[in-house]
């Protein structure tokens, strides 16, 4: 059974890059590009892993994460947070809200693969 | 037949009922359930002590002797209540706000809290009221006697004097019991007032009952009674104008000045509003009281044997007809009239005597002033009780000396004219600020002496005090001093004569002396307080404080007010000053308040003297007052300065707050920008890094993929460059390092270039241009175009209308070229309008590319070009106004 990942990110080029990397590694990659209905998309698709950008149009990635951790079915869902801001406070906030992993942009492709595989064993 | 014993039993029973009423009312008042005690009806009924035994018995006698003239006694007060309502209201207001305890206290307070004046008024009041009290004793005695005459079986009364004595003693007992229960006159005598109200009802119904009996029982109906009245000499309506005028004026004056009236009207007044009811209800009461006077008088003259005392017709008519129960009721009515008057009058007089004569003397005999050992309260109450007994003893003595000979009404009028001497000083004090102490003293002395000479002393009868020789020849043969013909004016009625001269000279001397002398500062202050009572009901300022020891004041106040009350008062004052415990600072305000409280117990002048003894200043000097006034002026100036300062501070604070808000917002924005710029830099870099790694590490890419990924890397690199360019551009603009290439040109080509460069033709936005597009300006055309492009790009990005339209309109105005860029979107929210020109601000959130530098750059450019860019609120959509100077263009040409 293929592992599924839902990539929530609004920059088309980054979507394309991560999609390329993970699908080559055997992941089934789905994408979602805005924050407003991201929680609904996760609940519908029930992915094995969520890669979540912080700065999303409509709703912050942190808010989405908070909802996920509060939701019954998604409380233990592995979430890899991505942020382009990289300050310490973002990292702390992500940790406090229960992100499984935090990664600052720009990242190396190997890092993303390693993180995804660490969160969801093949 | 009513036996004498039954009569005495009924009297005692009636008094017992009054006791119960008074006692019950006191208890109810103590428990705070005295709402019904404070009704305007009770107040009105208590005013009816104006109607004494003189009215009850004497009015009929008066009518029998002098016809309709008795009406004047009712007309005066009715006119006062109706026509002088405002003056009565003023009197009541002053009495309440100044804690006035008596008419002497009022006059003394008004004229600088003068003790001398208070003593004079008190003496005059005692002298004037004593005959009146004697009159009441006489009426009770006579009425008892008329019963004993009718009662053939009873042994004749051994001595009428003993009746008078026991009545006086009984009244003294009752008055002491209920009149001196509480010390502070302003705590009011609920019990007494209630008892008086009951007595008022009793006497009214008694008189009405006799009247009804006379008209329908003896007279045989209204018609026949009227016929009898017409037949009698009483039916002739002959008015003596001077007597009518004098008597009406006299009774009106007495209504205001009588100590007992002052007591019920001002001191016992619970609420100023009660006056409104009394203003119509009291005249109505008087009218009912006078309704049957003439029928009774006429019937008495007709039915009773000649020589019967007309003053007792009210009683002797039912007795002669064998209606002993009615006679008994009538007797109780007369008894009520007499007792209520005596009770209130002796309370009022005892307050005056103890406050203005006994206490000052006692205080001055105490070396340590008010700080003596012992409880002053007991002294005051004892003084009151002794005064009550003394007043009644005086009344009894007068009765014994005068022998009860004079007709009732005559004594009443003489009493009236005595207290009427207060009128000039009273009214002058209420309405004329120029009135002063010297004037009041002089007027009272002159008026009082004339009254004594022309009215009081002759009232004892010829050869009792004044010899008949003096009456006819004048003292020492001085004809112009004859008591009934002063200054040789003869032919006047003796009463009119006396009232005329005493009041006239009283008033003239009062006015002249007031005009000729200067009031003391204290009088000026009090005068302003009294005359302008409705403007400001604040108390006078008088004490400068500081010297007084709060503890001494506390000791004194405890003795006068009682420990609990004084402690409560001091604690409250201390709390008002923000202090803990029981000792407030002896500030002027506090001393003022304390003096007012004390004056409720011992009168204004005494309270003033007591505090004066403790504070060290026995009297307030001009210097004190000037100091107070000076201080007040300084405080006022200081406070207005403070006010100005605090306004200024508030303004500064507001500005600071605004600045702070802006700084905070800027700081937030800066943080946000750092995040933003980080995001803006990292996002393209992420793509560049990811795809360069893909290109490097992936061997299986086909040519198309390679090209695509290389294109992405290129595009993101361009985006990074543009961001860096913008930052650099802004930085040099801000630092003033950029040089503007000013050259003349027209507006239109620059605008056209900008529109073309914006790529509008490929998007949805429509642009409409108009106005003074051909204007010549001297500017940096590239930079201006950059601003135009930015504004157009903003409209492209942010205008949210269905068919977005950007209107660009130019016009010249006051040496400026104005170019407005207005779109049809929703515009910029009011709270964001301040921020949009700041660096790195972006309305909304990361919606449309760009790092939020565009408008900041525009602003810098416009400033460099000598113009401005502003947001124009209140348009249909987002509107930006550019201004450029035109003069430079002219200069450049």
From TrEMBL, chain B:
Keywords tagged on the record = Coiled coil, Kinase, Membrane, Phosphoprotein, Transferase, Transmembrane, Transmembrane helix, Two-component regulatory system
Q: Which reaction does it catalyse?
A: ATP + protein L-histidine = ADP + protein N-phospho-L-histidine
Locate the transmembrane regions by residue number.
6-29, 41-64, 70-88, 116-135, 163-180, 192-218, 244-262, 282-306, 326-355, 376-399, 405-431, 438-461, 499-518
What sort of enzyme, by top EC class, is this?
transferase
Entry annotated with the keyword Transmembrane helix: yes
Localized where? Membrane
What Pfam family does this protein match (any one)? HATPase_c
Could you say which protein family the record assigns here?
Belongs to the sodium:solute symporter (SSF) (TC 2.A.21) family.
**Name of the protein in its database record:** histidine kinase
Organism name: Pseudooceanicola batsensis (strain ATCC BAA-863 / DSM 15984 / KCTC 12145 / HTCC2597)
């Amino acid at each position: 059974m293929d592992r599924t990942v839902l990539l929530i990110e609004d920059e088309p080029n980054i979507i394309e890059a991560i999609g390329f990397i993970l699908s080559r590694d055997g992941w089934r990659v789905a994408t979602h590009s805005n924050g407003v209905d991201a929680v609904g998309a996760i609940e519908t698709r029930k992915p094995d892993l969520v890669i979540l950008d912080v700065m999303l149009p409509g709703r912050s990635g942190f808010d989405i994460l908070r909802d996920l951790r509060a939701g019954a079915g998604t409380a233990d869902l592995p979430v890899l947070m991505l942020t382009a801001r990289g300050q310490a406070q973002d990292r702390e906030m992500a940790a406090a809200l229960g992100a499984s992993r935090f990664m600052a942009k720009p990242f190396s492709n190997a890092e993303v693969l390693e993180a995804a595989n660490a969160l969801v064993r093949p | 037949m009513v036996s004498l014993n039954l009569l005495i039993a009924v009297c005692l029973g009636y008094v017992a009922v009054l006791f119960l009423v008074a006692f019950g009312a006191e208890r109810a008042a103590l428990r705070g359930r005295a709402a019904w005690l404070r009704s305007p009806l009770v107040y009105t009924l208590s005013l009816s002590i104006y109607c004494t035994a003189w009215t009850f018995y004497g009015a009929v006698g008066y009518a029998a002797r002098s016809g309709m003239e008795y009406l004047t006694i009712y007309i005066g007060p009715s006119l006062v209540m109706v026509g002088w309502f405002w003056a009565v209201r003023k009197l009541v207001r002053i009495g309440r706000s100044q804690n006035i305890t008596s008419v002497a206290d009022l006059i003394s307070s008004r004229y600088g809290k003068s003790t001398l004046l208070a003593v004079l008024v008190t003496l005059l009041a005692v002298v004037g009221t004593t005959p009146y009290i004697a009159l009441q004793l006489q009426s009770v005695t006579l009425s008892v006697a008329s019963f004993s005459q009718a009662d053939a079986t009873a042994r004749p009364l051994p001595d009428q004097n003993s009746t008078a004595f026991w009545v006086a003693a009984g009244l003294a007992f009752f008055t002491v019991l209920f009149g001196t229960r509480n010390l502070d006159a302003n705590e009011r005598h609920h019990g007494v007032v209630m008892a008086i109200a009951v007595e008022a009802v009793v006497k009214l119904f008694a008189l009405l009952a006799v009247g009804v009996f006379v008209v329908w029982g003896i007279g045989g109906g209204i018609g026949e009674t009227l016929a009898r009245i017409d037949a009698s000499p009483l039916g002739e309506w002959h008015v003596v104008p001077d007597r009518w005028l004098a008597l009406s004026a006299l009774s009106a004056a007495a209504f205001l000045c009588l100590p007992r009236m002052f007591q019920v009207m001002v001191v016992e007044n619970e609420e100023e509003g009660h006056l409104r009811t009394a203003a119509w209800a009291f005249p109505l009461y008087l009218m009912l009281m006078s309704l049957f006077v003439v029928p009774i008088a006429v019937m008495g003259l007709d039915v009773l044997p000649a020589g019967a005392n007309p003053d007792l017709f009210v009683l002797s008519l039912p007795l002669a007809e064998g209606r002993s129960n009615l006679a008994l009721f009538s007797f109780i009515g007369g008894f009520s009239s007499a007792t209520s008057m005596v009770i209130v009058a002796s309370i009022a007089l005892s307050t005056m005597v103890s406050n203005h004569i006994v206490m000052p003397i006692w205080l001055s005999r105490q070396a340590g002033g008010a700080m003596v050992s012992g409880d002053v309260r007991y002294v005051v109450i004892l003084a009151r009780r002794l005064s009550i007994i003394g007043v009644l003893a005086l009344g009894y003595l007068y009765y014994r000396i005068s022998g009860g000979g004079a007709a009732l009404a005559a004594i009443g009028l003489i009493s009236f004219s005595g207290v009427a001497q207060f009128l000039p000083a009273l009214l002058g004090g209420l309405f004329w600020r120029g009135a002063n102490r010297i004037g009041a003293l002089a007027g009272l002395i002159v008026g009082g002496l004339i009254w004594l000479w022309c009215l009081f002393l002759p009232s004892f009868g010829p050869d009792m005090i004044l010899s008949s020789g003096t009456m006819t020849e004048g003292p020492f043969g001085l004809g112009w001093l004859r008591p009934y013909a002063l200054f040789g004016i003869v032919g006047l009625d003796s009463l009119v004569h006396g009232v005329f001269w005493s009041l006239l000279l009283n008033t003239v001397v009062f006015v002249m002396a007031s005009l000729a002398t200067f009031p003391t500062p204290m009088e000026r202050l009090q005068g302003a307080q009294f005359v302008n009572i409705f403007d400001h009901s604040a108390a006078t300022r008088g004490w400068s404080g500081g010297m007084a020891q709060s503890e001494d004041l506390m000791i004194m106040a405890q003795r006068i007010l009682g420990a609990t009350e004084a402690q409560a008062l001091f604690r409250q004052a201390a709390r008002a000053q923000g202090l803990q415990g029981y000792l407030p600072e002896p500030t002027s305000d506090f001393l003022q308040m304390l003096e007012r409280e004390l004056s409720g117990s011992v009168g204004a002048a005494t309270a003033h003297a007591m505090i004066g003894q403790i504070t060290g200043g026995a009297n307030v000097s001009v210097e004190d007052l000037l100091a107070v006034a000076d201080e007040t002026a300084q405080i006022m100036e200081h406070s207005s300065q403070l006010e100005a300062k605090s306004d200024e501070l508030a303004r500064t604070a507001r500005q600071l707050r605004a600045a702070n808000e802006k700084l905070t917002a800027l700081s937030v924005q800066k943080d946000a920008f750092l995040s933003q710029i980080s995001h803006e830099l990292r996002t393209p870099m992420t793509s560049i890094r990811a795809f360069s790694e893909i290109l490097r590490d992936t061997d299986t890419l086909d040519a198309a993929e390679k090209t695509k990924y290389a294109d992405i890397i290129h595009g993101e690199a361009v985006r990074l460059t543009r961001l860096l360019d913008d930052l650099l551009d802004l930085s040099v603009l801000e630092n003033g390092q950029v040089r503007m290439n000013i050259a003349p040109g027209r507006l239109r080509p620059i605008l056209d270039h900008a529109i073309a460069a914006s790529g509008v033709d490929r998007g949805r936005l429509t642009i409409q241009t108009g106005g003074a597009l051909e204007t010549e300006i001297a500017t940096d055309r590239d930079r201006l175009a950059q601003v135009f492009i930015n504004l157009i790009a903003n409209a492209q990005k942010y205008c949210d209308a269905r068919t977005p339209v950007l209107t660009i309109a130019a016009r010249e105005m006051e040496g400026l070229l104005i170019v407005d860029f207005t779109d049809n979107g929703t515009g910029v929210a009011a709270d964001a309008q301040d921020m949009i020109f700041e660096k790195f601000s972006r309305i909304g959130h990361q919606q449309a590319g760009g790092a939020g530098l565009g408008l900041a750059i525009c602003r810098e450019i416009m400033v460099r070009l000598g113009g401005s860019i502003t947001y124009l609120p209140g348009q249909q959509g987002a509107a930006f106004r550019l201004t450029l100077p035109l003069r430079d263009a002219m200069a450049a040409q």
